[in-house]
Write a structure and sequence with these properties.
single chain; alpha/beta; Maf protein; 6 helices; 7 strands; elongated
Length: 196
């Protein structure tokens, strides 16, 4: 039965939409309205999983018979949570702090079956190790890509890859915001085989 259910991405992120399109599936997008404020004492891993599930459940009323994908992401540098920089000044600060450091992205994923009420959730980590970055390199990168709406101030799917020494993790798609390997496993659990 689940294979006949429509697939909904509870996100308006163009990056997540582009990733899901790689699987060559029919899906629609819906905007989830959720309060993303962290809870007291909540770890980053707990927060992204909770928010991914909240986003999926937030669009349930519009899609009562669907498989709904929710995702949320946060990044940590030396124990501090990184945010979207919003402007050049903040992006310069983030990239200066990341120079020569490891930044771990925690991506929460939820596949919610709005028919059964069952939710599968996971947190998928992915680490980037930054090169030593000079101020000139940072300025040049920001001139070219302006990643001000991206957590960590870079786009790994673009020129941002030149900022890194290496990647560490199981699924590079998690870095962009949607762990496709884990999503495939969740879909198979629902009887939805992409390669069938």
């Amino acid at each position: 039965m689940s294979q006949a259910l429509p697939l909904v991405l509870a996100s308006t992120s163009p990056y997540r939409k582009a990733l899901l399109q790689q699987l060559q599936l029919d899906f629609s997008c819906a905007r989830p309205e959720v309060d993303e404020t962290p809870l007291p004492g909540e770890t980053v891993e707990q927060m992204v999983v909770r928010l991914a599930e909240m986003k999926a459940r937030a669009v349930e009323q519009q899609h009562p018979e669907a498989l709904i994908i929710g995702s949320d992401q946060s990044a940590v540098l030396n124990g501090n949570i990184l945010t979207k920089p919003g402007n050049r000044e903040n992006a310069v600060r983030q990239l200066q702090a990341a120079s020569g450091q490891r930044v771990t992205f925690h991506t929460g994923l939820c596949l919610y079956n709005s028919c059964s009420g069952q939710a599968q959730t996971a947190c998928v980590p992915f680490t980037v190790v930054f090169r030593k970055l000079s101020n000139d390199m940072i300025e040049h990168y920001l001139d070219k890509e302006q990643p001000y709406n991206c957590v960590g101030s870079f786009k790994s799917e673009g020129l941002g890859v030149a900022l890194f020494e290496r990647f560490e993790g199981d699924d590079p798609n998690a870095l962009i915001g949607l762990p496709l390997i884990k999503l495939n496993a969740f879909l198979r659990n629902e009887g939805f085989e992409i390669l069938a």
